[in-house]
Design brief:
By secondary structure, the protein is an alpha+beta fold. Among the domains are: about 170 residues, no CATH class; about 110 residues. It has 15 helices and eight strands. The strands form two sheets. The chain has a five-stranded mixed β-sheet, with helices on one face. The chain has a three-stranded antiparallel β-sheet with strand order 4-2-6. A hairpin with a 5-residue loop joins strand 7 and strand 8. Helix 2 runs parallel beside helix 6, helix 11 runs parallel beside helix 13 and helix 12 runs parallel beside helix 14. The longest helix is centred in the N-terminal third of the chain and has 36 residues. The radius of gyration is 29 Å and the shape is flat. The relative contact order is 0.10. It holds the Pfam family DUF2254. It comes from Acidiluteibacter ferrifornacis. InterPro entries: DUF2254_membrane.
Length: about 400
């Protein structure tokens, strides 16, 4: 029960921190705290002495302070609305020109969330300072330092908006998006290569027992720490049936175990299996390769007709193939004594190639630039790894040439 609650909290935490609203809300509360601190400073003895010593820091009329803060709040609200509109336009353009799958990559971008958060924080700050202004004959009772700080924030927001215009126009470029997906996928492969184990063989007993999925979802592996402990406590070995990134239906076999398990053990084991609604490149590098494939296919569609973007995607995919072959992942999880206890189904390079490159070939086989690019990249890959033979692709090429 506790493991199920922990998994739910972990999933909820991931959903919250990856939400587009997380950092803007967090920054908004930060600015609220800053406004409280500034008002306290304004009404403190130090603040009053500062305003009396330097008259230019003191605003004589409360109405003037209200007018300044009202103008700031209204202006930044307009700036925020315009910025959000630009983000929506960029997302729509990316979805129509590239692929819907790249939207998560753009929405989850931290830079634009920080900028929008600062805008919202400035609005919160201005409104909170407005509530602290009272009509008074003594100018020292007006939060003028806080008002001047709001003016500085506004100037900073204007320069930030200029940067935002540059950033948002750059982030939607095809080569930038392809490069970002490539880098995330590369990091995922490197991260998983840490689990590489030398001179370790995994041998399941001849008699294996199927465990069926209790819910539907995309299989993304196991909670390594928990699964190690579970296998040690129950003297168990586990082998996955599906590849990472495969969708599993409720009631279909998902793993093999070395011995039968009770219903309570099966339920506990499922708490350590990742069945998610949405895939992530971090946990499954093949998802990144598929994103690059979809970008290439969309670019080759008659409506887009952009073989240059398709070629950039092909270069990124073959670099990832090369990195994957160099990594030689074993897809094993071992215990403290280096004995293998869990085996993930290995992903063959031929399968990766056929699923992604053949799909691109089906759309771009009549384009000479795609033919040339594929011929160059495949030739280089086969020279580096002579044992590779992409039979299905060679057959497809012969059909086109004939």
């Amino acid at each position: 029960m506790m493991d199920a609650i922990k998994n739910w909290l972990q999933n909820s935490y991931q959903i919250v921190i990856h939400s587009i609203a997380f950092y803007p809300v967090l920054i908004g509360f930060l600015f609220l705290a800053i406004s409280i601190g500034m008002i306290s400073f304004d009404y403190s003895a130090v603040g009053k002495d500062l305003k009396s010593t330097y008259e230019f820091l003191s605003i004589k009329d409360a109405e003037t302070a209200r007018s300044i803060l009202s103008a700031i709040a209204g202006g930044i609200i307009s700036l925020t609305v315009f910025s959000f509109s630009m983000v929506m336009i960029v997302l729509n353009q990316a979805a129509s020109s590239l692929s819907n799958r790249v939207l998560d990559n753009l929405i989850g971008n931290r830079q634009q969330q920080y900028i929008l958060g600062i805008y919202i924080g400035t609005i919160v700050y201005a409104f909170f300072i407005l509530t602290a202004i009272r009509d008074a004959e003594n100018s020292l009772s007006i939060p003028s330092i806080s008002t001047y700080f709001a003016i500085l924030l506004t100037v900073f927001d204007i320069f930030l908006f200029i940067y935002f215009l540059h950033y948002i126009t750059q982030s939607v470029k095809f080569d930038v998006i392809v490069s970002r997906i490539y880098q995330e996928t590369k990091n995922s492969i490197i991260k998983n290569s840490v689990e590489k184990k030398e001179n370790v063989t995994f041998q399941m007993p001849d008699e294996k027992f199927e465990i069926k999925a209790l819910q539907s979802g995309v299989f993304e592996g196991f909670n390594i720490t928990k699964i190690r402990k579970f296998c040690k406590e129950n003297d168990l070995m586990i082998e996955s049936i599906h590849l990472k990134g495969s969708f599993v239906l409720t009631g279909t076999p998902i793993i093999y175990t070395s011995k039968p398990l009770s219903d309570s053990q099966i339920k506990q084991l499922h708490d350590y299996i990742f069945l998610v609604n949405r895939e992530s490149i971090e946990e499954n590098f093949t998802f990144g390769i598929r994103q690059l494939r979809e970008i290439a296919v969309k670019a080759l569609s008659p409506g887009i007709n952009d073989p240059g973007t398709a070629n950039e995607s092909l270069k990124a995919i073959f670099q990832l193939f090369d990195l994957y072959l160099e990594s030689e992942l074993h897809f094993l999880i071992v215990d403290d004594l280096n004995n293998p206890i869990v085996r993930l189904r290995p992903i063959e390079i031929e399968q990766l190639f056929n699923e992604n490159i053949l799909t691109i070939w089906d759309y771009g086989k009549s384009d000479r630039s795609i033919q040339y690019q594929l011929n160059v990249l495949i030739t280089q890959l086969q020279r580096k790894y002579p044992k590779l033979v992409f039979e299905q692709f060679l057959i497809a090429m012969k059909k086109v040439n004939h």
